[in-house]
Amino acid sequence: MAKQSSKTGLGIGQTTAQIQTLTPIQIQTIKLLELPLVELEQKIQKEIEENPVLEDPEESQKDENPEERKKLSLSEVKDDTIPSYKLYVNNRGKDERPQYNTFSVKESLYQSLLDQLGYRKMDERRRKIASFIICSLDSSGYLTRDLSSLENDIYLRLNIDTTVEELENILTEDIQQLDPVGVGARNTKECLLLQLKAKENRTPAVEHAQQILESYYEEFTKKHFEKIMARLNITEDEVKEAYDVIRKLNLHPGGQVDDSYTDQTMQIVPDFILENEDGNLVVSLPKFYIPQIKVSKDYEKYLEKRPGVSKTEKEASSFVKSKVDGAKWFLEAIRRRQDTMQRTMEAIVSLQRDYFLDGDDTELKPMVLRNVAEKTGLDISTISRVVNSKYIQTPFGIYPLKHFFSEGMSTDSGEEVSTREIKKILQQSVENEDKSQPLTDEELVDLLTSKGYKISRRTIAKYRSQLNIPIARMRREI
Questions:
Q1: Do β-strands 272-277 and 391-394 pair in parallel, antiparallel, or remain unpaired?
Q2: pTM of the model
Q3: What are the residue ranges spanned by the domains of the chain?
Q4: Which of 221-235, 272-286, 329-343 has the lowest mean pLDDT?
């Protein structure tokens, strides 16, 4: 039997399947939905800078009086449209992955290290290279990029021909000598050893700690204390003292610079605000971060005039129309974003009403993206964009929206509970265990089963991994 052809009279090879074409407004809305509040504000400011048709009424009031404004001309319009690449500093690496961006550190750490570098004796060439390396550190003070990639970037960006050997020398002799101790390390082992070597009080515990990390780091990370005792010929008490020294070292040296500034930079701006008005849960979107932009009346009036016949006048009219259309699409996309955000958050609050009344995690019901999509009538992909990287301010704290989502499972009694509740019990069990004999996954299964939660060892291992809880051997302490 011959197969039925899917071709139609619309064109060769075209099928009857419907292909949805997104409008410019829909595309804009999708992009804006992905942005948290602070990034949305930055996006709006960028649009204002790039599209002269958009204006911020509050900023306009600070400008000259309307009657003093000049008449529009094509040259003026075109001069206003500065290309976006001229508005931003090109200070990022070629790799799109954020961990490889050149300037990725907090300004406080960056400034602190550069200030210290200014007091070290070195020629200008070496200082430029050292500054570049400092600006390549991550927020914890680690250098996660390999020296060969830095060598290439330094040549491309600073026009300085260097070598991996020279970079190694500058890193160890200059940058790793700065405060906080441990900054500039390329891995955890190097970070800890830098701190141990800097200790002036060379107690036996410090010496043993350094020996352990230098020669038996893998055994230490796996907590094979008996092997360490045998190979270094030291007692259990001596291993414990060395372990205590290492445990007190700082794994994130960059995070201790200027705590007040860090708190400020890490402060989260909520995308939603929830208020409990006598049991009535009210969701709102903060408006003070979003400029109330509009299309300039001057440009709209310009389009109302009948364009002249000259080529220049036609070009001006066409150019202004494209900018006005783009501005209107952008404003409509913002309106749609706000409406979608509001509908989504109200649905989440409705589904988790018991939780939002008092903030008790045990009141969180199993909920997935599909539940919110069904309640709002929106696509799951749309809900996902709203939830991702967004936060809500509640009477009991600020939370990421992902906090309210979890799968569900049933207890022995048939009651459906959130996996978050099970994870909470799992975490409490590990916190209260005897650290000299930590609970294995099998023992955790028995413990949760005794509490009425049917759960497999594989699921325990998955939840333990999600909670960043190591296996029993790695939790052991002496």
A1: parallel
A2: 0.49
A3: 21-84+267-405, 107-177, 188-256, 408-475
A4: 221-235
